[in-house]
Design a protein that fits this description.
8 helices; binds adenosine-5'-triphosphate; 6-stranded parallel β-sheet; Rossmann fold; 208 residues; binds magnesium ion; globular
């Protein structure tokens, strides 16, 4: 006799967008914690293309940021890196990120992971209303920022305490520029990639 129909469980997919210049253990712990608590099948890290909110500073080439994310996530069977934002021309908007990832994973239930600082900016994002419809938002704690979902509808956003990692990409870049170590702030392979490609070094004052 046919086995009783078992409702197929929808795939649960986390999306973590970021500049990842470079990816660090704050990103990885946040993704890991959300994956565990939300029973996610996978988390996709999506490095931005041209980050429109960071136009003021020079962002490292997308290919470097992509490869560091690949190196950092390679050992985790549930972590992946997507090229959707870096392969799309023009500035990155989260609404496009989510739509493109969704198109590649039809039927998946989407969980967009953001740190406290990014969450507070959601309403400034392009097409904020459809962004909130496409995915459930998980706002995670981040040292130095207040985590609040004020102005955001309760049913679309959940706030979550994750282990506090007082790490930022900006601080990592500054440390490298100052000749200070980033060991243990970023994965070992990322330290080595930064050194190999001379990323974040101060522009050398070439004598003429
Ligand atoms: P930058 O200093 O260049 O802005 P960043 O460390 O903030 O870099 P982003 O790539 O801007 O890293 O962040 C990507 C996502 O990861 C954002 O949602 C951000 O809030 C979150 N995030 C970054 N660092 C942490 C951290 N230490 N703890 C929790 N969430 C974090
Ligand atoms: Mg940031």
């Amino acid at each position: 006799s046919p086995s009783p129909a078992r409702p197929e469980r929808r795939e649960r997919l986390g999306i973590m967008g970021g500049t990842f210049d470079p990816i660090h253990h704050g990103h990885l712990v946040a993704a890991s914690e959300v994956a565990s608590l939300y029973d996610l099948d996978e988390v996709v890290f999506v490095p931005t293309g041209e980050p429109w909110q960071k136009a003021a500073r020079q962002v490292s080439p997308a290919e470097h940021r992509y490869l560091m994310a690949v190196i950092a996530t390679a050992s985790n069977p549930r972590f992946w890196v997507s090229r959707v934002d870096i392969d799309r021309s023009g500035p990155t908007y989260s609404v496009d990120t989510i739509r493109d990832v969704a198109a590649q994973r039809p039927g998946a239930e989407l969980f967009f992971i953001t740190g406290a600082d990014a969450l507070s900016q959601i309403l400034s994002w392009k097409d904020a209303a459809s962004v909130l419809e496409l995915a459930h938002f998980v706002g995670v704690t981040r040292p130095g920022y207040e985590l609040t979902n004020s102005h955001l509808p309760d049913d679309t956003v959940t706030l979550l305490d994750v282990p506090a990692m007082a790490i930022s990409s900006s601080a990592c870049r500054e440390r490298v520029a100052d000749g200070r170590p980033v060991w243990y702030l970023v994965p070992d392979g990322v330290v080595q990639y930064i050194n190999k490609h001379h990323l974040y070094r101060p522009v050398s004052s070439t004598s003429s």
